[in-house]
Structure formats: structure tokens, C-alpha cells
Amino acid sequence: NHVIQKCIECVPPSELDFIIAAFRGQVFHLSSHPYGCRVIQRILEHCLTEQTRPILEELHKGVDHLVKDQYGNYVIQHVLERGLPEDKSRIIVSLLGRVAQLSAHKFASNVMEKAIANAQPSERASLIDEILRPGSSISLTPDSTTVVGSAGGSSSSGSNIGTLNSCPVVE
To answer: Whole-angstrom Cα distance, residue 105 to residue 37?
Structure first.
């Protein structure tokens, strides 16, 4: 694990194709592994776009599970923080329709915070609007309150964040 991470950090990306080739078809499994998730993050940080594209495509296929996974959520957060705008958007689109549910989840709530913090203004508005939508009830958990708090603190979208206080809450 540490040796592979160090190689990825120190060796020129052009020399890492054999590592990336070995990971193809295994990205979902590696992203869900306590050590593998770190290696996938290093690949995304240090390799060239043409090398990371197949890795990202595999991630996108498993995003619904990875956001809730104990280790996979870190990989998705990494993409939301450091990824290309189109990859961030694809992840955010996959979260829509489940914002309240994911916000109350132990691991997915961290992904929701990163999504709100790193979304384009229109995407951020969609995420926040889903929380505010009439009939949307968000369970009151420590995780969901953190997400709602981050939504209120990062609204440059013009959404009516004052209505977050009146959002229906289920205990």
C-alpha cells in the first residue's frame, strides 16, 4: 500500500501505466478497501487525464454504492474536491433525488457536504432546493444537521436558506 502510493507520487505518470492497467476492472473493489481507496486517490491526484479517465468511468458506475461505503465515500469526496467539473457534475446528478436520505447516512453525509461545497452554483441550488422542497423530510441526525448547516453556510446560489429552519424534520 505505502510503497505503491509512494511510487505513484514519485514516478513519472508515463511509467505508471502497468499499475493503472492492473487496477482496471477492480476500481470499485479497491475503492471499497481501507488501503485500496488511498491508492485510487493517489492515482487520481498524480496521473494524467488519459490515465485516470478509465478509473473515473469505473467510479461513476459504482457511485451509488460508494457514497455510502465506509471507504468508498473518501474516493467520491476526493473527486468532488479535486476532480474535473464534468466528473463533479456527474456525481452530483447521481445524488439528486436522494439528498435527504444520503444526508442522514453516516458516510454519505460527508459526500453531501463536499457536493454542496464544491458544486457549481446551479448544482448547489438543486441540492439545497431538494432539502427545502415541500414534502421533503430529513431525519434529524448529527450527520444530517451537519449537511443542512453546510448548505446554509455555502449558499451563493440565491436559494432561500432562511427557509432551512422551517424544513420539516423527522426525529
So the answer is: 19
Q: What share of the chain is helix, strand, coil (3-state, %, to 5)?
A: 70, 0, 25
Rounded CA gap, 146 and 142, in Å?
Answer: 6
Q: What length does the chain have?
A: 171
Cα separation values, 115 from 92, 110, 147, Å? 6, 9, 10
Give the C-alpha separation, 167 to 162, whole Å: 10
17 vs 28: CA distance, rounded Å: 19
Identify the CA nearest to 102 among candidates 89, 111, 92, 91: 111
What angle separates helix 108-118 from helix 72-82, to the nearest 10 degrees?
0
Is the pTM of the predicted complex or chain greater than 0.90?
A: no
The type of residue at 15 is: E
Which tens digits make up the pLDDT trace of 30-86?
999 999 999 999 999 999 999 999 999 999 999 999 999 999 999 999 999 999 999
The DSSP letter of residue 170 is E
The whole-angstrom separation of Cα 144 and Cα 138 is 7
Between CA 81 and CA 93, with CA 87 as vertex, the angle to 5 degrees is 100
